[in-house]
Amino acid sequence: MRWSKSLIPTLKEDPQDAEVISHKLMVRGGFIRKLSSGVYSYLPLGFRVLEKVKNIIRQEMDAKGSQEVLLPALHPPEIWKKTGRYDILGDVLIKFKDRHGRELLLGPTHEEIVTDLVANNVKSYKELPLILYQIQTKFRDEPRPRFGVMRTSEFIMKDAYSFDCDAGALEASYKKMYEAYCKIFERCGLPFIPVEADPGMMGGSVSHEFMVLSEAGEDRIAVCLKCKYAASVEIAACKLKTKAGPAKEKILPIAQVDTPGITTIEKVSELLRVGAEKLVKTLIYKADGNVVAVLLRGDHEANETKIKNYLKAAALELADVKTIEDVTRAPVGFSGPVGLRNVRIIVDNAVGSMANFITGANKKDTHLINVNASRDFESKEFADLRMIAKDDGCPMCGKPVDVKQAIEIGHTFKLGTKYSDALGAKVLDKDGKELSAVMGCYGIGVTRILAGVIESNNDKDGIIWPLAIAPYQAIIIALNMDDKKVKEVSEDIYAKLSGAGVEVLFDDRNETAGVKFKDADLIGIPIKIVVGAKNAKKDITEVKDRRSGIVTEVAVKDIETYLKTLLG
To answer: What is the pTM of this model?
Structure first.
C-alpha cells in the first residue's frame, strides 16, 4: 500500500482528552478517531491490527475444537429477566422500544442468548461437549467511558461458551480455553498474567482474569514476590500477621473524647496523635435492603466483593445519610459499634486481634477510646473483609505481596448450571435421565488487546508493534521521491516485496525525511527500509529494526531474501 493513497492522518500533538499512552498514540498514529463519548471509528491501520488479532483468536479457538457462530445484537428483555440479570445490570443495559412499542436491548454479552440457542437445539449427551464462540460488537451504557478503546460503550469482544454433561467434563473444556487464551496472548505479544478472580455478576465458581501490568490499568492485582501467586485484589485472601493480640495488652477503661467536627480517619488520628491502625471504622451498608455494619481497621480498605460474597447478597451499597443517621442516631462520621442496636455487626479479622482501639461514639462530635470487642460490643461474625495491600503476607507462602495496576484483557468463568437451569438447557444422559448442561464462559476484549499491546510496547517516539499483529510488516521510507534513483530503487523494492507476499507500506509522499522518520516511528511498523540518495546509487538500502534500533545494509537484489529471513 502506498502512503500517498492511504488514510493515515497522523498528528503531532496529543489529543486533549487522552489520559493514557495507548489512547494518545492510537489517535496520533491515525488508528482511531472519536465519534462521541466511548464510541470510536477504526481507520485502515487500526482495522488491519484488529483483523490480525481476530485471525489469531480464530486459529487458536478452532484448534481447540470450538465452533464459530454469530448471535443477535438485539435481545428481547424477557430472556434476561429469566436469569435475573435484567435487574442486576440495570442502567448498564442499553434499552429502547421499536415502532411497535416492544422493548429491546443491545447485547452487552450473550450468556442468555447462547443458552437459549442450545436449549432449543441440543437434546442428548451425545451432542456434548460443545464450545461455541463469536467475535462481535457489544454495547454497554458505561457511566464513564475513558482511556480510549480501553473502556467504551461499544466494543468488540470474543465470547465463547462451553456446554458439558458434568463438572469433570467442564474442567476439560475450561482447561482447553485457558490454554487457548495463553496461546492467543503470547502470539499477540502481550506480557500477560493469569490471576484468580471473582465471578461477579456472571455467577459460577472458578474464575480467572488475564491481566497486563500497566499504570493505565483500572484493575489491581496482588502478586507474590516469592511464589508467583497472583490474584485480583477483590478475592486475594488477607493473611493475619502472627503478632501479639489483645491477650498480651492490658485492657484499659473505655472513655469518651471530644472530636468537634472531625469525621475522617486522618483527622481523628492527627487529633489523638495515634496511627490509623489504632482506629476502627464502622461502615454502614445495605445488603439486599438490610442494614449491616462492617468494622475495619482505620488504615485498611473495605473489599465490597468479599463483603457481598460473605453476606451472599445480590446487591450491596453504602447506606445513604438518612439510613446512617437513623441507625446510629448520630451524624455521618461518628458511627461506631458500641451501643449499636438491632444491626448485624461483621468484624474484619484484623480488628479481632486489636485491643484498646478508637471508634465513633454514635454521638455528635464524639469518639470512644480503649474500645474492646469482647467487652464493649458483641459480634460473633469475623471474616476477611478487606483489600489486600502491598507488603501483606501472601495467602500461599506468607512472603510479602506487591499490588500492581493492570488491564484486564480476558476473563474465564465456570458458570455451572445457573443459566441452563433458568433457560431450560437440558439434555438426556445415557440412562435417559434429564440433566442441566454444565456451562463455562470465556471472554476476550478484542479492542482492549490493542490498548494493552501499546501500553506494553512503546517508547518516546511511538508504538512498537509485535510483528504478528502489526498493521504492516515493513515500511519503505523513500527519503526524496524527486531523486530519480531513490524513486527507482524504492519502486523496485516495493514491487519485489509486494510480489513476495510481504505486507509493506510504501511512504512515497513528498515530505521531508524528518516527517517520514517521525511518522514511521509513531505508527510502529516493525521493519523500516530506508532508501537514501547515497545508498541508492550503490543499489543498497538500510534495514532498521524498530524495536532494537539495529541497522543493517542490504543490497537491493537481496532484499526479498533478507526480509523473508527476518519474518520467519
So the answer is: 0.88
